[in-house]
Amino acid sequence: MLYSYNYGFSGFSAKLNSTQAASLAKLDQVITVFKSKSLKLHTTRSWDFLGLTVDNVRRTPPPQLAYGSDIIVGIFDTGIWPESESFKEPTEAKPIPSSWNGICVGGEDFDPTVHCNRKLIGARFYLRGFEETYGPIDFTRDPEYRSPRDYLGHGTHTASTAVGSVVRNVSGFSDLGRGTARGGAPLARLAVFKTCWGKDLEGVCTEADILAAFDDAIHDGVHVISASFGSSPPLSPFFESSADIGAFHAAERGISVVFSCGNDGPDPGVVQNVSPWVVSVAASTVDRSFPTRIVIDGSFTLTGQSLISQEITGILEVATTYFSGGVCKWENWLKIIASETIILCFSTLGPVQFIEEAQAAAIRANASALIFAASPTKQLAEEVDMIPTVRVDILHGTMIRNYLARSPTVPVVKIGPSKTVIGETTAPTVAYFSSRGPSSQSPDILKPDITAPGIGILAAWPSKTPPTMLPGDHRSIEWNFQSGTSMSCPHVAGVMALLQSAHPDWSPAAIRSAIMTTAYTRDTSYDLILSGGSMKSTDPFDIGAGHINPLKAMDPGLIYNTRTEDYVLFLCNIGYTDQQIKSMLLHSESSTICFPSHSYRTNADFNYPSITIPSLRFTRTIKRTVSNVGPNKSTVYFVDIIRPVGVEVAIWPQIMVFSKCQQEHSYYVTFKPTKISSARYVFGEIIWTDGVHRVRSPLVVFLSNGGLFPSS
């Protein structure tokens, strides 16, 4: 039986039905509106924000220009646009690593002798599972290529973000964000595995194709796999998920696998890709904004966020003039034309869940632009707009509405152009759409693991694919802005490639540990990172261990390692049978995998970089083991504890002394509830430090000593 995934990214096309999309194609003014729009965030910012700059380099080459040429990153996605400058072979490129066993497969408009090189060294496509499930692709309805070539753009974008070559002097529309584009590991090699195909304006990936791609990637010799797809809860058991099984096989062979955590936030408990042998990535912002002035009647001025390249002037009207009940939705249009009008819409009326719904409605009414008032936590210029749109919060939207109510005449409003401002916006903030924990599949393992930039990421794009993927959009671009956990995932993949190159003896678990224990939890104002979709500070269910810090991850000091047998014990402890576990293993010679003492026990002792106690009723002690990957000399680590509210935490020993590199030490953590509490999560931290390294592990404790509690 075949299953399908819809990969996780917050694109407009997924939020309109096929009838609405087809109707938009008939509106001539859509083309004109698109030409007046600019794109989102700055070219270089996400990697500069992470400290990996390639400009103004002085004596010592930065990590991304020193490491990576020996590493092969596999991208499981919608294919590749090989003509992009991101995938050109650098003149200084070294020979393809001798460990590479893969191939480039030809097909429609894809010639391996032309399109593959010392950068793009592998390209395959997998269509059998998709066509067995959905039938042959209808190329009249879903433009596609029967080859590794990408039409949807998603795969080209993620590949460029992870390992794209350094390309200088590029920008989006209207010359905003001009700078240097590159991936996190620009010297790394790229192998493309096209597992996802277009269906009704969405990307769909079948499990049969995913598992086939994992098998090939393992055989071909990739070192890192990046996969930006998933399935919303309820989650399938690990032994029934091809993605989890394939990733398990990869981990057995020493291959790091990173997944996006999904775009179902901000509700708790919806995180995807939660197996402990992969890294699950949340999405967050960078420190860039696009303030846009709104001037009404020449005197009343407010500021919103937009990407408008030139000034727009029109009369200002509230949505009730054009939409039933003031609800800015396609079906609520009153068939009144809004020529040369800028419409004020509120997300709270209807409600309008997605800004794209209001944009489609405004286009249908023939409006010139849209002012969209929504929660201040959702004022993000994420992707290309269908119609010039200024985002304001509910307060400013109400001020505009009140001005309209008081005005004796119809006001005239001028909008834009937008400005690019760097460093004045506090960042990072977790994106409101980023899926949150706890894991619904294995609540004793914290997911997501980490957060990384995923808002307005500029990367390569197929020149024959419009930026919005909508009928009626006839623009041709080579660089496009996209947002979603699909965009944060390849950021982590790029960092993994650098770590694997710098530390070739590290296991996937060691790389994951280095990324998690060096992450930070405070923003550029030194306050706790904010959680988009709310007004509160983040907790580990929002950001996992924190925000990725590539430079610190290169030298973490200590790491938490795990092996295949640890993952097997994890599966035993959650109650899987020998037969179910054997179905996940590449090789199993033993007739018995689990013993009776394993079944339905907690995995709190699983040697993960984070510590989760899923049900604390009484005093409990757990164990962790760390390995020294710092200097090969005597090193002393001291412990510091930030205790969860209502929990006493004691650690023994409180000092660990390492005499050489790779030496291991274990420590024990005892948790004791100090108050009666029912069904409440509390959070803390353990930090080991030697004065140079700071090895931090988040603590997640579910207090359940006062009533009902989930089983452990």
TrEMBL record:
Gene3D superfamilies: 2.60.40.2310, 3.50.30.30, Peptidase S8 propeptide/proteinase inhibitor I9, Peptidase S8/S53 domain
Key word Signal present: yes
Active site, per annotation: D77, H154, S486
Domain Subtilisin-like protease fibronectin type-III: start-end pairs: 605-701
Superkingdom as given in the UniProt entry: Eukaryota
Keywords (A to Z) from UniProt: Hydrolase, Protease, Serine protease, Signal
PANTHER family named in the record: PROPROTEIN CONVERTASE SUBTILISIN/KEXIN (PTHR10795)
Protein name: Subtilisin-like protease SBT3.18
Organism of this sequence: Camelina sativa (False flax)
Lineage of producing organism: Eukaryota, Viridiplantae, Streptophyta, Embryophyta, Tracheophyta
Gene name linked to the record: LOC104722323
